[in-house]
Amino acid sequence: MSRRPDHTRRDARRANTPRRVHGTGGSAQRSAPAAPRSRGPRRPDASRVSPQRRLRSVRRESTTSRFAIADHRRRLRVMIGVIIGLLVLLGIRVVDIQTGDGDQYRVAAADQWTRSAVIPADRGTIFDRNGEELAVSIPSATVSINPKLIEDPAATLSVLTSVLGLDVDEQQRLFAEMEAKDRGFVYVRRQVDAAVGAQLAELRLSGVNIDDEPRRVLPGGDTGRSVIGLTDIDGVGIAGLELGYDQLLTGTSGSMAREVAPGGRSIPGTETVTADASPGSDLVLTLDRSVQFACEDALITQVSAIGAKAGTCIVMEANTGDLFAMASVKRNTTSGEVEITSGNHAAVDVYEPGSVAKVITVAAGLDSGVVGPDTTFVVPWRREYGEDLLEDSHQHPDEEMTVRQILVESSNIGTIDIQTATGRPRHWEYMRLFGLGETSALNFPGESAGILKHWSDLQGSEQVTVSYGQGMASTPVQLVSAVNVIANDGLYVAPRLVRGVVDEAGAVTATEPSATHRVVSPLSAEVMRDIMVDVVCAGTATRAQVSSFNVAGKTGTGLKAQENGTYEDEFGQRSYYASFVGFFPAEDPQFTVLISIDEPPAGTINRFGGTAAAPVFARLVPTIAHEVGIQPPDTPPACGVGS
Amino acid sequence: MALALRDLAPRRRPSTPPTLVVVQGRRRRITRMSVTVVGVIVIGLAVLGVLHTQIAERQWQIDQLERSISSAHEDFDTLRALRAELRSPERLNTAARELGMRPATASNFIPIDPQVLATTIAQTAMSPERSAEPEQLAPIDQFRLVKVIEGRRP
């Protein structure tokens, strides 16, 4: 640091001196007289001013001239003050920009060199009851281009083709887009394998974007597809549980910012998550993947073997209403192959159930006390009702039949007699109690309520045919729930497909147990179980017998209504809906199973429920028992195979 | 060699001897304080710079870690989908058929004599619990565990 010269310091000292001693008077006298200034004309005449005033004037003048250096220091201080003031103002402005308007400027700056992208939220997983994945979202990549940024269309297309295996049409489409440069975004291929996406990203092609986009897959193949449903390519549920629980499964998307180079290409490693994506919740279903597969496999085998059109299988736990399986298969009209359907026909389609509905009629008669199992009716093989002649499945002489026999032999006329004895209004009320005519608690997308007219609205022979399942319609899930009342000691338990929900924190929230209501007394249910065992042992369902277990059930062979409104098409042909609903073990029912075969070949023995559907039940029971771990009772079955 | 040069400029002799002035303590304090403030600001700025560097470095490490977590999460999803596929009845059925196996045409439950069962357990030190599948987390429990851990992330 340089020192000030001595004379300057002296001058400074001098300059300071008067100020320090100003007003004392002594110093002013020691100072040299000041040079006169050219301010004479404005100065007042000395003769007219007072001596004191003159003295002050002299002092002022002498001070100014003697200590002129003090003005420099003052100016310096003023300048420093001004600079400090400016700096303070600058600081205030900086603080203001950083705090008050900071966000606005930051956003404006970020907009120039960053691009934001949506982080898709992980869609929730769908598990079966044992925690096996039925539907999961896996990482995949979506390739897109910005034609405006592509420098060499031919080379870019060549690379994309070699990596993605684009076909000629795709190549032509993309080349046209690259040449036209009209649009800033064009999909090349969506949801390709993540490794392929990573491979393309490594190449850092100008104008080619690789984005993460999860892909929905069913790792178990088509198993459970009818129930799980579908999502579209954007991961939005469009069918089945994917649709029904779309809001729950869909999470909240996040956002990400990434820096871009002047060419518009992303700078690797600059991605910053600005808002985390929140994954959707997960569903735990009541389905058992193994039982579901067994059902689908058995249905495909049977529908293929007998040449039917479609089939349905439902396995319901008797006391909880949990559906362990809900399968639908259908013959592909083009290929002729029987395939698992994407739609859940077990909940959506309605059929006239046929003789399975006799279970309701007989149970109503027993529970209302108008008949007992051994109450007899004289039953002809046919009888006229209104303008229609209704008949049993086979010709027989007028015979005295007990209620038990009527159900075991599945007599239509005898069932009408029981309904008549019960009374049509009361019979209708029982049908409602059994869950017919309203959608089940599943609330499945597109689920049907079935068709059950009020008893007073029924016309002609419909008034009585409803007693044996014609003139009304139900979904398979309604039918299995209705028969399950007998298996569950007379208590209706609503079917259930979702067992619980896994939230974001991994906690499982169990769904409410299924609602129940009393339909028939436990005693009536027990009598019905006993009769239904006879149906399997000696009636129409002998092919449902299995070794080791007592089985109870009822067959049904319903006529399908044709487009012309009758039961015969223009060629006089009839179509059937063959079904069997049974439960096991009969002495302590654990599971109720429905098998239905849609349009079995009309001219063959396989058109009946006892021949088309009951064998599938028999095939499934050991599998279900093994998968679920049901031990056979100690006592051998009354009529099981090999007993 | 140094030469003493005479200052030829006319030197004005002071008419009065220089007055010695005692520098006031207040000014010294101001000077000292100014130096201190400037020093503190400079050091503060330097510390701030270092801190910024540290923060940027840590942020980079956090970003790297988050990318690793995200990558591990993707691997987890891919692997559990693969495991579900491998364990699916459909694949097992296909694989079994390729090995020449066929579904059983009939099945039966065979009762075991309790005496035989007891003897077998005693001889092999087998218990129903031990003969069961080795204890391991079910897929859904593994999945939940990961969710729980992720839920704890700040």
Q: Could you explain how this protein is built, in words?
A:
The complex is a heterodimer of chains A (643) and B (154). Chain A is α+β, with helices and mostly antiparallel strands. Chain A has three domains: 1-19 and 51-87, no CATH class; 115-281, Alpha-Beta Complex (Penicillin-binding protein 2a (Domain 2)); 289-628, DD-peptidase/beta-lactamase superfamily (Beta-lactamase, 3-Layer(aba) Sandwich), CATH 3.40.710. Chain A has 21 helices and 26 strands. In chain A, the strands form eight sheets. In chain A, strands 7-3-2-12-21-22 form a six-stranded mixed beta sheet, with no helix packed on it. In chain A, β2 (126-127) and β3 form a beta hairpin. Chain A is elongated, with a radius of gyration of 46 Å. Chain A starts with 5 loop residues before the first helix and ends in a 15-residue tail after the last helix. Residues 1-44 of chain A have low confidence and may be disordered. Chain B has one domain. Chain B starts with 24 loop residues before the first helix and ends with a helix. The relative contact order of chain B is 0.04. The mean pLDDT of chain B is 80. At the A-B interface, α1, β3, α12 and α21 of A face α1, α2 and α5 of B.
Question: Nutshell version of this structure?
Answer:
The complex is a heterodimer of chains A (643) and B (154). Chain A is an alpha+beta fold and 643 residues long. Chain A contains 21 helices and 26 strands.
